[in-house]
Structure formats: structure tokens, C-alpha cells
Description:
This protein has 23 helices and 16 strands. By secondary structure, it is mainly alpha-helical.
Amino acid sequence: xxxxTAMTRWLAAGLAASLCAxxxxxxxxxxxxxxxxxxxxxxxxTPDTTMPAxxxxxxxxxxxxxxxxFPDLQPQQAPxxxxxxxxxxxxxxxxxxxxxxxxHFRATPPPTTPALAADASLAAHIDALWPLLSRDSRQVPxxxxxxxxxxxxxxxxxxxGEMYYWDSYFTMVGLHASGEASRARDMLEDFAHLIDHYxxxxxxxxxxxxxxxxxxFFSHMVELEAAQxxxxxxxxxLPQLRREYAYWxxxxxxxxxxxxxxxxxRLADCSVLNRYWDALDTPRTESxxxxxxxxxxxxxxxxxxxxxxxxxxxxxxxxxxxxxxxxRQHLRTIRTxxxxxxxxxxxxxxxxxxxxxxxxxxxxxxxxxxxxxxxQARRQAMQRYLWNPSxxxxxxxxxxxxTSDQPTAAxxxxxxxxxxxxxxxxxxxxxxxxxxxxxxGLATTRERTGQQWDAPNxxxxxxxxxxxxxxxxxxxxxxxxxxxxxxxxxxTVYTQDRKLVxxxxxxxxxxxxxxxxxxxxxxxxxxxxxxxxxIQYPAPAARPDR
Length: 546
């Protein structure tokens, strides 16, 4: 969608060029993604649209502590019938909302989970968790918000009882480390199915997540499995890789400088980079009341604009972080869609290079040439806009035309993707060591906002990206300090609580916190990253005199 204020600013500055001068050559244009109508026809309806009056009543009354609980309940009859029954009875004497909900919905019974050995080592505990976190949704109940999948999969745990996009890549890394490669391969098949069925991979496998995706790790998943099964695997998933790319690049060919549409932004020099986006501008189904309250606090902005930015931040996976906040402190100032993120564009660079290699394997020279050109153009644009001269990779505010001066753990994604120069990698390592390194691992940001993707929280996926990126550029000492610090923190919490959790803290004697819900245990990506790092950095052998 065109941002009119931003467009006026660009035109006034004399930066707009003709649309023709910036148009992509026809051969380079990605194949169109599935239309919104086609996707909608295959997707189950969301409870906020099928039962709007009941949904708002339940969420606004805070009938459940967690706003995700109600959308995940199983309706016992057609939602339209439940809504009609509610409208007919809500004003009658003695009506009780909880009684009504209890009589019309059922919670999915939790799977039976046998007790784990109390004295198990950390590695043994993680290995034992994978079967307990595995789910099978080949058949889902009628009217459920859950999306069916053809293969079993591993969930994060806690309140997250469905499969999530970027979480799953780090879970798959851990499954390989635990000798559970077949589970990882099943999950890759599930993600390919989602692309085939809906035109993209949703945030998670619930109907209310279909309006957005998450950080695009599908090409990394394909490479992970290709390392085990051989390079032909890239060819097998080439159609899905290309559809994934089409989803993220939809609308790029029609943009003039200073315009943005969906996930793409065309900058003043005709470069195209990407942003996070959500197709809807309403409160999130799973966080309805929180979003309504945030929008109410943002009195200087349309509520729909706030909702879109909140949803886009949910697509980023960093929900929420000072990265997206106009004042870096208050959620009401969120402006995610104005930000060109360094992590997202690094992941799309990897997707472009993966497609180019797969096209070479099938002797499609035109495809390979085009996608190498896309990757090279993205790399050049990232060098121009996403490199802070102070010495680190950062986000770019395309509306304010300013590269961020905020160091965050996202600075390691260009190293992870291999698009950084050696000198930039050295500078990034230096900045991270001086500003983000803690004894317990790599801090997410330096800001303490109360949001879960800010200090003092430590997140397993960011530790993995940093460690692997640093290793790739020969920065082994810092990689080891991050890995061993994080492993020590995980081990400390495990020793005290006998569990792994969603996020950790760099503060002594505290647990990870902040955000919209309590600390969750399980936990898919913490298990995966920890298990893989334990192999890369085994505990030092004890001295003989000890």
C-alpha cells in the first residue's frame, strides 16, 4: 500500500524517478504468488470473523488469562450457529458468558507426557523432550482454527501447541544434533505443503496466522536437509523456494521510488529491499485486547496503522522490540512497516542464492542468472543502506531515510548469510563485543523497555545466528565466548528448575521475562540450539587431579 505522506516527502525532495526507469525486466519478475482470494478459499475462517460479537465479548471481558486461549478452543457446532445463539441469549436474565462458552467449546486435551528422569543430563533431557513435543494434525476437528499438516512435527511447547515458522528451523538443527533427522525431514515436508496450499508459510499453523509469515528460513531448512540427503534436494523443493520468493516480492515491479507495497520498498536509487508486513490492519486475534489498548494509547495515529505495525512486528518474530519503536521505549510509537530490517533482507539474500544454485542444477541458465542478479542487487543495496559507518549492520528507516544507530543482535544476519565483507565482519564483531556481549551470551539490544526482545533477555536463535556467522568469518574467539556463556546460562536454569525455557536473562538470578505472556517452558528452539552448540563446544575435559 502506498504511504501518501512518505511519497509526498520523496517527491518534494526531487528524488522520484520515472517508473519505467526502475521497472524490473519482464524476465526477472518473479512468478505471481497465489491470489488473496485463492488463499482465503482454502483457509478456515478465523473466530473473530465467524463469531465477532462473541469473540469481542470474551476477549474484552478477559474470560481467559491468555487471549490466545479462546481462538484455540474447539467449537462444538458451526460458529454461525454459536454466534446466533449468543446474540439471542446474551441479554436474557441470568446469562453467564463463561457458562455459555463452556457449553459450546472444548479445549484440546493436552497430550500425555510421561515424567522425565529427574537426574538426566541436559543433553539426555533434550533428547527425551522431542517425542513429548511432537504432534500430528493430519486430521483436525471441524471448525478448528488449526491447520492440517501431512506429517508429524515438533512444537515449541507451553502455550505454543502448533508449528511455528522460524522457531522450527532451530528445532530442526537440534533434531539433527539429537539423531532425529527423520523428524526434521517431516517438518520440511510440512512447510512445503503450506507453501503449496496457501502460497506462503504462515506465522504458525492456525487460521488466524495466515495473514502474515515469519522470518523466511525455508531456504535454510532446505540447505540443512540437503547437507544430509544431497544437493538434489534443492531441486526437489525449487518450486516451493520460488513461490516463497514470489510471496515476499509481490508488487515490487510496479513501484516508483519512495513507494512501498506489501513486503517491498523501492528506495530513491530504485533499489528494492524488504520489510515486514501483515495483510490485515485489525487487532491480532490471539492478542486482541493488548492491541486495542495499544492503539488507544496512540492518540496521534489511526488505529488501523497501529494494528498493521503490531502485526508486522509479530511477523518479524521480534514481538516486541525497541527496534520497531519510534522512541525506542513505548509500544504506542511502533512503526515496523517504516523499517527495512537487516535480518529479513539477509534471509532473502540467502533465498535468492539458494534458488540460483538450484536453477543451475536443473540447467536453467536464465533463472540462475536472474537470481544471482537479484542477490547481487540486494547485497549492493544493503551495503548502501544497512551498514552503519560506525561499524555494524543495522536497520534502515525508509520513511525518515536514516540508517539506525542502534546495535542489535540482528547485526549478525549478514555474516550468517555470507554477504558481509571480512572487514565489516571484524567491525561488527568488535561492536558486538563491546556493546552486546554479556557473561551469559549475546544480548538482544541494549535497551531495557520491558519488551521481551530487548535487554536483558537472551534468545537461543540469535545466539545460533551470531555464533555461526562469526565462525564463518574466522571470529572464533568471540563465537566461543557467546556459545559457552549461553550454554552455561541454560545449564544453570536447568540445574535449578529441571527445564528449558523460551528465553533467558543476562541478569544474575533472574529468568527471561517481559512481553504479553508468562515465561514458557518446553522449549523448541532453546532445545535445538543448546543441543547443537553442545556438540560444537563440548564441555572441557576435567583435569586428572579433579
